[in-house]
Write a structure and sequence with these properties.
Blueprint (H helix, E strand, L loop, with lengths): L10 H14 L8 E3 H8 L3 H13 L3 E3 L4 E4 L4 H25 L2 H12 L10 H17 L3 H21 L6 H20 L2 H13 L2 H11 L5
Antiparallel strand pairs: 1-3, 2-3
Length: 226
């Protein structure tokens, strides 16, 4: 895991990014124990910046820190998947609606740029695929110009990424991929056109068939195979 620090302002930032990516990709699976001494050695850093990174991941609900020197990747649960989906069903359409009402020219430019980077998620996406997906949705959140709403949705997205990876284990056919792409296009068009009700409705439809919804179904029907 030893890598370059040059793209990070601190070693703690480097450790946070490296660990978070591996947790989201399920390289470190739910419930897996993380030995801090081994992690620090593999990253080429001391345990102090590693501990700072782990505390940050703990605040996002991705790891649990024990009283000693080990950490554990948080387990997935159908209850948390349900809670995340309920919150997104309420807040994502609100953000899309407000974005349609309040978007400025710079917001439109940002949304269009993010949309151009979108690609249908493959069955085995890497972190960059998820980042592009998030960037598009966040460009809509930002266009709402509601800082509390943006911060809340950012936090939900942080917690939901691991569940998206579970959702991706259900194979999707080309028709489903095309439908998701069409929803993204319709979402963008509605926000740019100032169609508040239309943007909210497209977002509701998008959340109902989202990877989070698929993950909830999988965890509910097959709880032993997250």
């Amino acid at each position: 895991m030893n890598g370059s620090f040059e793209n990070f302002s601190t070693k703690s930032e480097f450790a946070y990014a490296a660990l978070r990516n591996k947790i989201l990709a399920h390289d470190y699976g739910p419930g897996e124990t993380l030995n801090q001494a081994i992690l620090a050695r593999d990253m080429g850093i001391s345990t102090t910046p590693l501990r700072e990174a782990l505390r940050r991941l703990e605040s996002e609900g991705l790891v649990e820190l024990g009283a000693h020197r080990d950490a554990r990747v948080s387990r997935l649960s159908a209850e948390e998947a349900r809670d995340l989906l309920e919150m997104r069903r309420a807040l994502d359409p609100l953000a899309a609606s407000r974005a349609a009402e309040r978007r400025a020219s710079r917001d439109i430019a940002r949304m269009r740029a993010a949309f151009e980077e979108l690609r249908p998620l493959p069955d085995r996406p890497d972190v960059s695929d998820l980042v592009a997906h998030r960037r598009f949705h966040r460009s809509i959140y930002v266009a709402s110009h509601n800082e509390l709403l943006i911060a809340t949705l950012d936090g939900l997205w942080d917690k939901a990424d691991r569940y998206r990876m579970v959702g991706l284990r259900e194979r999707r056919d080309q028709a489903r991929r095309d439908e998701t792409a069409a929803e993204h296009r319709a979402m963008l068009d509605a926000v740019i056109a100032g169609d508040s009700a239309g943007a909210a409705e497209v977002m509701r439809r998008h959340i109902r068939s989202s990877l989070g919804a698929t993950a909830l179904s999988r965890l509910t029907t097959r709880p032993d195979h997250p």
